[in-house]
Amino acid sequence: MENVTQTIPEVPAATPAEPEKKKFHISPKLIGDIVITVVLALGALLMLLPFIWMLFATMKDYTELYTTFFPSTWSFESYAQMWEECGYLMEGGIIRGFFNSILTTVPVVAVQIVVSAFAAYAFAKLHFVGKNIVFLVLLSTMTIPFAVIMLPQAWLFGAMGLTTGPLAIIIPKFFGSITTVFFLRQFLYGIPDSISEAARLDGAGYTRTFISVIFPLLMPALATQAILSFIGNWNDFLGPLLFVTDKDWYTLPLLVNRLNNGGGSLAQIPRSLAAALISLVPIIVIFAVFQKKIIGSIVFSAVKG
Amino acid sequence: MEEIQQATEVKDEFQPTVEVRQDNQKGRKKRGLLWQENIIGWIYVAPMLIGLFVFTAIPLIMSILAMFYQWDGITGLFESEFVGFDHFAAIFGGIHSAVYWKAFGNTLIFALQLPIGMIVGMFLALAMNRPMRGVQIFRIIYYLPCVMSIVAVTIIWQNLFAFDGSINNMLGTSIDWLVSDAGIAVTVILLQVWKGVGYTALMFIAGLQSVSTDQLEAAKIDGANAWTILIKITLPALYPIVFYLFVTGLMGAMQMFNEPFILVEYGINNNAMTSVSFVYWCFGNSNLGLASVAAWILAFIIIVITVIQMYVDKRKQEAE
After folding, report:
1. B59, B63, B148 ranked by CB distance to A283: nearest
2. Is the pTM of this model over 0.90?
3. What is the CA radius of gyration of chain A?
4. Minimal CA–CA distance to A274: which of A45, A63, A77?
5. What is the ipTM of this complex?
6. Domain residue spans in chain B?
């Protein structure tokens, strides 16, 4: 909603670093570069320190948890404890947590993206009565705070019998996401109409034109949206907290949170940190592989914003 | 024969649209397919409309009605007792007023992360916009916390800021970060700034790259110094992004829940409760009517922000 009417001039994506000149005299630019690099490096260290602290904390003896930075003895004891503790908390332990998280993200993302793509195609390329009103209505739902609808939703899902399993956080997302539609619609405006017109003239129906001609062109945008949606769903906390009542269907964030709340003693902290770290691994991998796409999407949203 | 006639009639009904469409797309001669396009278009958007109706519209209407009922969220809404404006009275001056307005105030205090994050993000963006080696790696590192699970990072901060935790040990202080009002505010604000500053910086970088190089060159030739260029050219060019980040950030900040909730014993302690944790707290107490009133106060604030945003955008467009 908030990003419809603003216009920001087109910009190229991130500028590549200027080719360095092969001369070795100390220019003001060089001094500036060095100073800024040092400052940025210190800041970057600050950004990473909490994660490094967590990594070391899982390998320390709990007695030195807060007193040292580097472990005096390295052990993987807390991972074994975490494994065991998760087994007590839910059937299947942390493996089940992973399974639940995958089950509530991968199919959700796949269906959500396809449904949103069809809707975006309709909004961008087809002409039907009431199109603009429908789009505005959908867009306006983006401003509704989740807090307003979450409790009636919880009741509704309960009445539908969805809250005993994972379905309450799966099924509603099958119906597409307006954020994705908005993004894909912008992308589709960049594809000339003549492409789909040509396919149509060759006798292809709307659906076939979309699937065989437009869909392949949309792939890069779909991939970006799929990654962002996956990260969002994987990290989601409040939704599962409200809608998943059966412990055996806890997603990883819920499991980690529960483990963290399980006990107050210092000895139990390394194991919750171990679980937290393990839950981050898929996101770290995805971010490492797709960081260009993820960061590119921010530039896109800043431009289209 | 009859069928053909019917088809023509259908076509006639859509005649006005055909004209509009012909204006939009010159040279298209597929009028016969128009009714089909209408149907296909609606079919493509149908799942979204069904989802909107079932999972947004119905709960929305229920939450409006729930404001006037003593609803426990287990039985049906209309089987509950109608209590009129009792919940409003409870929040505006009644028994829940102290807790609610404390939560509301906390939310506003925690929102201080927004201006702080934007200032830090602006400096980071100015630094990372320099064409120099390794800058891409910095952008990735600063953005990293944004994609991380909020539960995992909050647990880290919970331990860093525990009373006997690493921060107090390192500084040699004994500050009750997670107990006192000020302590929690500082912890939550630092956590949010740390987690969000990479995003803010990347948005600003995108904005900085939209500053026209011609203008910068011209300013340099005229002998403007770096400071003047920053104030007169760069910052004004960033205005749309500042505005966008502020508005979306404010909406997000008003709905803060996760960080204080996980940080402090489920965030239900008075000093860490936010507007949304108040709603969750009501849910725990099976008082969905009270929860709805609190949620709609939040919605009202969001609506006001949206209206202001639309007004500003409109004024800006008119000025252009």
Report:
1. B148
2. no
3. 24
4. A77
5. 0.86
6. 2-66, 102-319
